[in-house]
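Exercise 7. Given the components listed, write out the predicted structure of the assembled complex. Treat all entries as one system.
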Amino acid sequence: MTQAQAKAEVVLRLDLITKSFGPLRANDAISLTLRRGEVVALLGENGAGKTTLMNILFGHYVADSGEVDVFGQPLPPGQPRAALKAGVGMVHQHFTLAGNLTVLDNITLGTESLWSRGRGRAVARAKVEALARDFGLVVDPMAKVSRLTVGERQRVEILKALYRDAKILILDEPTAVLTPQEAEALFATLRKATALGLSVIFISHKLHEVMAIADRCLVLRHGRVVGEVDTHATDKARLAALMVGGELTLPKAEAKVAGPMLMELQSVSTPDRGPAPGLKAVSLALRAGQITGLAGVSGNGQAALADLMSGLAQPASGTLALNGAPVTQWSPRTAVAQGIGRIPEDRHHTGSIADFDLTENAVLEGYRSRFSKAGWMNWPAARAFAEGIIATYDVRCPGPATRIRLLSGGNMQKLILGRALAPGPQIILANQPVRGLDIGAIAYVQSQLIAARDRGAAILLISEDLDEIMGLSDVLHVMSQGRLSPAFPRGSMSAPEIGLWMAGQGFTEGRHAA
Amino acid sequence: MRLEPIANPSTLRRLGLPALALAATMAVATLLALVAGADPFATLGQIATGALGSRLAVLETLNRATPLIFTGLAVAVAFRAKLWNIGAEAQLYAGAIAAVLLGTGELGSPWVLPVSALAAMLAGALILLGPVLLKTRLGVDEVVTTLLLNFIMLLFVSYLLEGPLKDPMGMGWPKSPALIPEARLPRIVEGLRLHWGFALALIAAVLVWIIQTRTTLGFEIRAVGQNPAAARFAGIPVNRVLLKTALLSGGLAALAGWSEVAGLKGHLSQDLSPGFGYTGIIVAMLALLHPLGVVISALFVAGIFVGSDAMSRTAGVPTYIADMLLATALLFMVLAILLTKMRVVRG
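Answer.
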């Protein structure tokens, strides 16, 4: 902290905030001070209490005890309007914009009086343009929001808060949807904002971003502040240790010699689905003993590729071959029968059935071939299989008769992992296998994938987390608008280079032509 | 106010709330009787006596419960897969027509009963086939198609009874000729007015229960109903499962009409069903879609109907009280079910 900042006025003070949900203490006596012109990061794993704290500040929840002061005035609890009025602006992880309205309309929506519509428009536009210039938030005020990129939409959200004279900006996981370049632009904006006297709370679980942008960092674990550190006087390893409560060990994935080609896509295309692009003449080879990583900003065709590989979609043109033989019949059932282990992107919606118990969820894929005879379910065998997964994959639960909805995300994912890996598949699709998990579960899932690779499986790993992709993949591809980049061997590309491909540049410039 | 899910509802909550719903229904019944100008306790007492007070009353209740068990099972099976079959009434009449077509002819006598039962199930299944194919192929809402088919079927029955199936000896009444004796369901005990349809309904309930809990089809039906996206991903052929569910559901509903014709009436007329198909929805919902629960709730609903008939003859309270009682019972029960899973939270 610099001398000037230490003396700067305190704009926000959270004092001993406590909030419980039933037996769970989401926030336990959390205190936080934010000064003018400062960026404070809230760092913690999923479920550490970051979002709960911000929801209390913003009036969505009422704290059990504790106080919130903004500019020295106590903030009445449970009133989002009061927070807005006091100058607190929040940019949520999921944007709240109307796609069919213009940028200007989205920004002014709700601020103008019902009767004066039209009169203040020119004034509003001038104000938005001035803000955009001052903060480096380049976006056309008359463009329709539905035509904007994700990065541009985020700028609109920030402009929306600034237009309402926010002096304190709260950003909830703002970089989750951005390419590295877009994230860098966001950081530039934040630096301009703090220079102009705004204060920022930056919620994240990405260490390098916190190191890059924050002045101070509050580390939360299980609802408590476990550390408050000056980012200039610490390093990533120490922050990570604070976050998980122990020294962090990332799984080591050392390169191996790749085996034969187990799955091959030759110039496969699939139709677009709404705004999400389908595959555009994608050729891809998955080899035994190799993890193939797929990087890209979400919504660029990864879902189409995952659906194709899991049997939900068929190629509209091109061929899909398994072990050198082109497939003719292709459905989820044939995919499972051909030995493809599939970990779906959304474990709640497609990976499991919430009100089914662990046994029923465990046999969802194999009930017909392995746990029934002539149409009769073999429940004892099914239960034994579920118990085996629970023991082998360390699923923490009361027993196989527990409904899966009662499990934490990590344990749910371990069951799905066990279901996919137990038959020993030769080809594995892992679509965002660690999203939303805590660091312990992440390390476990990743080590299981590496173990599967080491016994000779061909793995396609899809992730939006570049660190994960670069750490685990033996070769990686980048996807942008349904197109697939050439294969890059481990270590041949830097993160910024991959970022350019994610933004679609490699494709248009024709560099690294396939 | 908003609802918050409860992870593990307590036993008190799971048993107390339905009991409370029943008590609330009784309270409403008391009010209804007061409005009709009768002594509420006497009214309720007469409903109970009318349903259970004598051997005749009990047998009448069991007879009335028979078609309700079949339609209740039909609805429970379909709803379990989130296939909204509102058309049990039409499927019931399809079964009744099959019973008449095969039961009044010259079919070899020892085979006529099983053959007409199978034909009835097939007819009911076929009625539901169209709406399900429209749903799976074109995404047409089955609530609309199955509901509208009820009216088409009623008009079709009316046409049959005025035309090709009209009994020439019927003195002009729109009814079909009587079934031959071999095509009738015998009584369970000679001399007592209770036919084998009731026993078949009980067997059907047990069979459906076994299908749902022990077979792959039952597993598939439950999976498709709970989460079709996860079922599809796991490799369950969702559309084929919906088709099988529909065939089962339509067949069960058709047995209601078949057993009414072959067991009770002996012929087909336009008043064969006083809305058994629709009441089956109430029966299934009250039973929480559990096939064995359907038997209990069908007996309850039948008892209310039979009891109310008897009560209105003596106390002069209109029989509409039965419909209102069932409607309130259903509403309170649905509320009780919701509140066992959710709690109301302020703010």
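Discussion: Confidence is low (pLDDT under 50) at residues 509-514 of chain A. The interface with chain B takes residues 62, 78, 310-312, 331-333, 335-336, 342, 344, 349-356, 360, 364-365, 367-368, 372, 375-377, 379, 406 of chain A (CB under 8 Å).
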